[in-house]
Amino acid sequence: MTTQGQLFIGGEWTNGSGSETFDTVDPSNGSVIGTAIEATSADVDAAVEAAQRAFHDDAWRGMSASDRGKLLWRLADLLEANASELGELESRDQGQGVGFATGSMAGAADQLRYFAGWTTKITGTVSPVSIPGMLHYTRREPVGVCALITPWNFPLTIAVWKLAPALATGNTVIIKPAEQTPLTTLRFAELCTEAGVPAGVVNVLTGGPEVGKALVNHRGVDKVSFTGSTEVGREIVRGSASNLKRVSLELGGKAPSIITQEADLDSAVAGSMFGGLFNSGQACAAYSRFYVHSSREAEFTEKLAAAMSEVKMGPGSDPDSQLTPLVSAEHQKHVEDYISSGREEGAEVVLGGERPGGEYASGFYVPPTLFTGVKHDMRIAREEIFGPVLPVITYDDPDELVALANDTDYGLVACVWTKDVAAGHRLAHAIRAGEVYVNAPPLLDPAAPWGGFKSSGWGREMTGEALDSYTETKGVWVSLGE
Ligand code: NAD
């Protein structure tokens, strides 16, 4: 069965003003599972107008903080009640394991509940101004119409990370899901209606980069929250200049996983493997360069290769699959090109590296691939691969580690494996990254801020920091006539 998607504008489903559509495919076999509409610039105008109207409409503007919280909570309940269906849809569209996708719906519901709790706690301050007879206080007001532009790796989860704080603070939104994976965001819009979200508060426009660009350039859009590549992040900053939109960016990463000389290798292998291979390496937080003390390299590589060779590759629909196909044929080729570049630059493939045939031939599979003999300046050690490719680099002098870890434009995530607590903290403080994990795989929680240093982005998702990014501070000056 294929899904025929429409646009969701002003609370109505519509085919929009154009005639262009695009297909979305099942990454495990390339078959078409859905068709979506390529929104036109007139559709973008219509969605922005609907979001602007809803922003000022009493149904939303006049809704109490407590009722906004209940609304987000209802949405969370609906997400959970429909988690199996949504997880299955996400798995078919994105390729990821059905269990993982279904579990991620519970994570998204947690985000909604976390921000549901915040709606009644967004306060201003009374400011101690030194001007006689003046009362000054601040209000935190919504920014306005927010364009939420999302990537294909965790489609609905990332949309909810943005939507929850945006709605908690009273904004209206237009979500533009990635063209590879629009289906769960469209289904989520139906749940918004069911939860009682007023018309125009949540709109969904499907389409490719042109739709994203039109939103970014639109003077009626007040804020863009974008998750995606650093290259597109730069374009968004340029495009937002017209009306100086507020911009939040969650971009790429190249996370080092540092295995110190005295690390517990079994934990380091297990955590590094999970960190490198979850969602088939298609994660901004993926551990993707492994600095191993030269005295432990042979043991680490042997154990990692053994563990990786046990990983069961298969379609997301099979609950036993541990490594699922990549999202598209184009991305499969992109990852394979990195594998070729690693070979050409002189690194050695210990495991994987070849496109699998047989039952895997029609899907976009890349097997778990382990490189040794990698030098810090090779492309596979420096650039974001976004696939199940793990490069191992050796070091001798622990004093070099901070410089090696920081020698990158990225700064999203880093990891340190050590039994020396003090060394773990020292490295965590010295590495320039938004998240540093010590003896742990990459994890997320709505109560922990998420985002990057340097070219990995601007701002933080989750926590009160996300609320700040969806509000403007207004000062009110009142003469007390004294
Ligand atoms: P992408 O940048 O190609 O596309 C992301 C979204 O932006 C899509 O919806 C796309 O249609 C849209 N888009 C493309 N060009 C645009 C433009 N010029 N203007 C406006 N919108 C445009 O990224 P992708 O390939 O979908 O995702 C992979 C990237 O996302 C990786 O680099 C990854 O690290 C990053 N990512 C980061 C995080 C994080 O939290 N930091 C999370 C997930 C993914």
Write the SSE topology:
Blueprint: E1 3-4, E2 7-9, E3 12-14, E4 21-25, E5 32-37, H1 41-56, H2 58-61, H3 65-81, H4 83-94, H5 98-118, E6 126-127, E7 134-142, E8 145-149, H6 155-168, E9 172-176, H7 183-195, E10 202-204, H8 209-217, E11 223-227, H9 230-239, E12 246-250, E13 255-259, H10 265-277, E14 287-293, H11 297-309, H12 329-344, E15 348-351, E16 369-372, H13 379-382, E17 389-395, H14 401-406, E18 413-417, H15 421-430, E19 435-438, E20 457-458, H16 463-469, E21 471-479
Parallel strand pairs: 1-5, 8-9, 8-11, 9-10, 11-12, 13-14, 13-18, 14-17, 16-17, 18-19
Antiparallel strand pairs: 2-3, 4-5, 6-7, 7-21, 12-20, 15-16
Helix pairs in contact: 3-5, 3-7, 4-5, 4-7, 5-6, 10-11
The site of nicotinamide-adenine-dinucleotide has 29 residues, from α8 and α9.
Task: Give the key terms.
six-stranded mixed beta sheet; 16 helices; 482 residues; 38% helix; seven-stranded mixed beta sheet; alpha/beta; binds nicotinamide-adenine-dinucleotide
Portion in helices: 25-40%
Shape, please? Answer: globular
Can you count the beta strands? 21
Q: Structural class of the secondary structure composition?
A: alpha/beta
Q: Which stretches are poorly predicted, pLDDT < 50 over at least 5 residues?
A: none
Q: Give me the number of helical elements.
A: 16
Percent of residues in β-strands: 15-25%
CA-atom Rg in angstroms: 23 Å
Compounds present? nicotinamide-adenine-dinucleotide
Q: Strand order, biggest sheet?
A: 15-16-17-14-13-18-19
Mean pLDDT: 97
Summarize the main sheet: 7 strands, mixed
* Terminus-to-terminus distance: 73 Å
